[in-house]
Fold this protein.
Amino acid sequence: MPNPLSKERKSYLKKQKYNKIFITVAQFLILTILIGLWELFARLNIIDSFLMSSPSQISKTIISLFKSGELGKHIFTTLYETLLGFFIATALGTIIALMLWWSDFLRKVLEPYIVVLNSLPKIALGPIIIVWFGAGTKSIVFMAVLITIIVTIITMLNGFLSTDSGKILLMRSLGASKVQILLKLVLPSSLETFISSLKINVGMAWIGSIMGEYLVSKQGIGYLIVYGGQVFRLDLVMASTVILCALASLMYLGVSLLEKLLIKK
Amino acid sequence: MDDILKFKNVSLIYQTSVGETEALKNLSFTVKKSEFISIIGPSGCGKTTVLSLIAGLIKQSSGEIIYKGKNLSETDKNIGYMLQRDELFPWRNIERNVTLPLEIKKIKDKSARERAISLVEKYGLGEFLKHRPSSLSGGMRQRASLIRTLSFNPDLLLLDEPFSALDSQTRLKVSDDVFKIIRSENKTAILVTHDISEAISMSDRIIVLTKRPAQVFKEHTLLFDASLTPISRRERPEFSKLFDVIWKELCNA
């Protein structure tokens, strides 16, 4: 019964479509204007291009980094640390959240510890981590895990605990065991929480790895930023930040794709 | 007719950190096979507690519950529990929702599966087998929920205000449907409700409970013609008379 669309419907759909295009155009326009003004002001010497750098300088720096083969090395290092931290923290955090869901006793006992760990600025543990794990990749990954895992535990545990009590009652009335309740009800109903936890974790893992690289590193994007700052090469700092933006967006996009794949309507 | 369920002086005292609450006190009643009984009482009187006891979710403090001639805790409790809301899992389609009890109870029998699916078709949801619950109306969802309850062929059905989440139009229609399905499958059913007309329109017998701690206040055996559906019962003169009687009892209970 495909009815021909009414006039009102058509104009409504048209309006919707234009609205969408308008938003996208506006988004690009803001970026273009900002970059353009930045470049213009730098060339006209209205702003100090030594302190503020400029888009053309930034792109030159990125190209020269790429040509010297340095870029790949730094990107790979940071990406490796971030992804490793992300996966370890997500997996471990989810498992710990599951254990806390399983045992009321454990949850009640550990609650104050989790609260304290959550409010503690993890960077304060930096020196301890370096002493324990050495000035290398291990420390950086550990920092990423530490920052990501607490949030994962809290988010996932809340997700597990908010499972519909009526559905739990239904499962219990059918004589379901705790494992069955977990596998057939709690886990599938927490899928959306898991996805949103992944999205948070992308950001968290990046904070962790960059912060780790600020503390100890010989290579990586975080290292480039710190190094650039120390030798007053602001173009290097800005170029690294741009690369960081691109990498983080790509990883977020990856999670969004996963979401579309897992949650089919 | 033989008794399928018997409550003998059942008492239940809830323990909480604030204190103890006496929910049931010396509650005794019997349910016969293929009978449809309603339990009605003032709100908060412990009606749902009675169903939780039968479903084996909680244990009585004293007294005996006899199910099919044996102590309830010693039987395999082939009892279906239908809740206030449909509680269909949104990530499963209707087929996988109604066969959930078979999965939980590890009934791998192919014929049990086919039986469950034939129920879906018999009661008008066949075309929705592969659909998610979100594409069904409230009334259809509650019907699917009943079919899920029936899927493992329980001997006894517990209905805990299964229509309270529906709007009043749908409610009449669904209670009619549910009544017909339960009759045609020849099941024993215990309905808990606070809705007097619902109780009168559906049951063979109504048990009126007192307020907490709940005891049996009155029992009414209903003598409607067996061919009458719940909706047509509502048009009978006996209906409003009985309504008045039970309404007054509930005020005094």
